[in-house]
Amino acid sequence: MVDQMNKQQLTVIKTSLLEQMKSPVNDLQVQRLTTALARINAENFGECFICKQEIPFSILKINPERVICDKCLEETNTSIV
Fold it and tell me: Where are the zinc fingers (dksA C4-type) (predicted)?
């Protein structure tokens, strides 16, 4: 999904990730943020782990460690993001 996002959008998300890493709530959040950064480099960032569809930039901008789209989140009724 990285290929569908433009360079500016990725820069915004990377900046958000790095800012969040400066004051993480806990070790799990650090792990999620680090994983999100790795996914950007692996080019599967922004892809829903369940349906493989794109997670909208507007969601990733706020919650860059998000791995499940809204539709799948509702269908699975889970709090895993």
Answer: 48-72
